[in-house]
Design brief:
The longest helix has 15 residues. The chain has one domain: Aminopeptidase (3-Layer(aba) Sandwich), CATH 3.40.630. It is α+β, with helices and mostly antiparallel strands. It has four helices and five strands, in the order βααβββαβα. The N and C termini lie far apart (42 Å).
């Protein structure tokens, strides 16, 4: 079942985010306080979205997103922050249902554009996103300073 996250889901969402971060590049660092603040914003702010995938009473996936004016282009857009489903639970269309909830919320917010991303060392989702109508726009590169 896909549903809006509630405050009691925080602990499970932190665990899921920690799993996601572990699978990312080495510079994805776990920061519990910052992550909890982001989850709180997405659950409790009208410009945040927190949805979870729950199966048999277990929160096994989540998607976090935000809505804001784009700082360069001046249009309303939504941005996916974290989209993750536990390994072993990914074949059940749960990931697609989480993304569909994000699309519906973006339409509800009357966003002009949606931004999604993928962590290349986890899985390249480019062909999946293109099939859903997304256009590749930018590659992001990190360098430690």
């Amino acid at each position: 079942m896909i549903r809006l996250a509630v405050d009691t889901d925080r602990k499970d969402m932190v665990i899921l985010a920690k799993e996601f971060i572990k699978q990312g590049p080495e510079f994805f660092e776990f920061n519990r306080e910052y992550l909890e603040n982001t989850i709180d914003f997405c659950i409790n702010n009208e410009d945040g979205l927190a949805v979870v995938y729950e199966t048999n009473g277990v929160v096994a996936g989540m998607l976090l997103a935000m809505c804001s004016m784009h700082p360069m282009f001046g249009y309303l857009h939504t941005t996916e922050l974290c989209w993750y489903v536990k390994e072993g639970m990914r074949g059940s269309f749960s990931s697609v249902k989480l993304l569909k909830a994000f699309v519906e919320w973006s339409e509800f917010k009357k966003a002009e554009y949606m931004i999604v991303s993928s962590v290349r060392c986890v899985k390249d989702l480019e062909s999946f996103y293109i099939k859903l109508g997304f256009t590749p726009a930018e590659n992001t590169y990190f360098r430690k300073v």
